[in-house]
Design goal:
Structural class: alpha/beta
Number of strands: 12
CATH class: Mainly Beta
Number of helices: 7
Largest sheet: 8 strands, mixed
Distance between the termini: 16 Å
């Protein structure tokens, strides 16, 4: 597999960005990061590697940078437009499990959104920068449903312990947002924003309740073409 070979041979990570330290998936190659952050490792799940391999092989990203977000692992893997692995960082996600946004949730005020509606939807999204409330620039993933990628909000960081949640080794406590994806500030400023700001890019969010093939049907075709049989 393209991405498995990439992880076996590359050791790249965003400078200054904390890297996810989730338990590694069985049988998945792990690439160590440079000496400056030698305590951290890149350890994507088998599902994340499978999706990343399909993207790289099919050029589904159309030469734009892309990110693969694994909700079960609470992590984001960033690639450039040529499929080069750049970094893996922890993320914060919607409180409620689920892979579909509630119809009309994007038009509601935050106080009107119920607990079960605070989901991060799964799927393939063309993400571009734009303005949110308060003239804050964010990377819109699903504008209709008000799902964006941005750094941890200052007001929420203290009351909800968002930074501590992000840095913890467990993935369960990373469920705290209304549906948006929070990333480390250094990673957002140094890596994500410069890469996506000009033309945007693709964001692939893996499901936590549905199957991979249900969300990304072309994975079946990729498995057949690559000789790994039906899935």
């Amino acid at each position: 597999m393209i991405i498995l070979q990439l992880f076996a041979g590359l050791a790249l990570v965003a400078a200054g960005a904390p890297t996810a330290t989730r338990p590694k998936a069985q049988g998945v190659a792990t690439a160590k990061v440079p000496e400056a952050t030698s305590e951290a490792v890149l350890s994507p799940s088998a599902d994340a590697l499978r999706v990343a391999d399909w993207i790289a092989a099919s050029h589904d990203n159309h030469a734009l940078p892309y990110a693969v977000i694994d909700k079960r692992d609470a992590s984001l893997i960033l690639f450039d437009g040529k499929g080069k692995l750049l970094a893996q960082v922890p993320v914060l996600l919607g409180i409620a499990p689920g892979d579909d946004a509630t119809p009309g949730v994007g038009s509601k005020k935050l106080g009107e959104i119920g607990p079960a509606e605070k989901t991060t939807p799964a799927g393939r999204f063309l993400a571009k920068f734009g303005y949110a409330a308060g003239r804050q620039r964010v990377l819109w993933v699903d504008y209709t449903n008000s799902v964006a990628i941005h750094s941890i909000p200052g007001d929420a960081a203290r009351s909800e312990n968002r930074r501590a949640r992000m840095l913890s080794p467990e993935a369960d406590d990373n469920r705290i947002t209304f549906g948006c994806i929070n990333v480390p500030r250094a990673f957002y400023a140094t890596n994500l924003r410069p890469m996506f700001e000009k033309k945007g890019g693709y964001v692939y969010i893996l499901p936590d309740t549905r199957s991979l093939e249900d969300v990304f049907p072309r994975l079946r075709v990729h498995a057949l073409v690559s000789g790994r049989g039906a899935v």
